[in-house]
Specification:
By secondary structure, this protein is mainly α. About 55% of the residues lie in helices and about 0% in strands.
Length: about 100
């Protein structure tokens, strides 16, 4: 985990994480990871922020596989945060 988090406010971390979550490189990953951050991040504590920061360092294809249940995630990602990610109830799509 980054030592650069020392002295950074909770609000600044949230803004940085949301930016990274919405700028993944594909629309699908943006919707999944960015939508997850938008829905839940405001209530995260420090440990949950660290979990999400670590998730953002992973490859999108892996994160999406974990969320869909097609790839087994590393043990470090197991728990309530991954369970919430797997629900996919935070992804909002509008048809054009």
């Amino acid at each position: 985990m980054e030592a650069a988090n020392d002295g950074i406010t909770h609000d600044h971390r949230l803004r940085r994480l949301r930016f990274r979550a919405w700028h993944r490189g594909t629309r699908e990953a943006d919707l999944m990871i960015g939508g997850f951050a938008d829905r839940y991040a405001a209530g995260w504590n420090d440990a949950e922020l660290r979990w999400f920061e670590a998730l953002l360092d992973e490859q999108d294809v892996d994160v999406m596989g974990w969320a869909f249940g097609t790839i087994e995630p590393p043990e470090a990602f197991h728990g309530p945060m991954l369970d919430a990610l797997k629900k996919l109830d935070y992804v909002s799509l509008t048809m054009r």
